[in-house]
């Protein structure tokens, strides 16, 4: 009984975390990131070079991508942000970024990878 309650609590927290991440993503669309995406994608941010996912598929794909990490919240946050912008999430839990050029080429101010 207690184990079931703990499991339900963990699931509720995960669902709440994902919904919070999604709402934060909608809020965080600043000019610098948009400019950087335009540079990465070319042609003023048109869908050239982007993946074929629908943005509604991003949570499922990011849950898969981030399932093996210890740092689930930041992984989900940045994965969802990148997926919504690039419409692509690489296969596997790590690496394979060459499958998604937009996802792979989006960098932080310091030049590090933005997408997990």
Automatic annotation (TrEMBL):
Presence of keyword Signal: yes
Record's signal peptide: 1-23
The keyword Signal appears for this protein: yes
InterPro entries: GASA
Pfam families assigned to the protein according to its UniProt record, in alphabetical order: GASA
Compositional bias of kind Basic and acidic residues: 29-38
Keywords of this entry: Signal
Chain spans, region Disordered: 29-59
Family of the protein in this entry: Belongs to the GASA family.
Protein name (database record): Gibberellin-regulated family protein
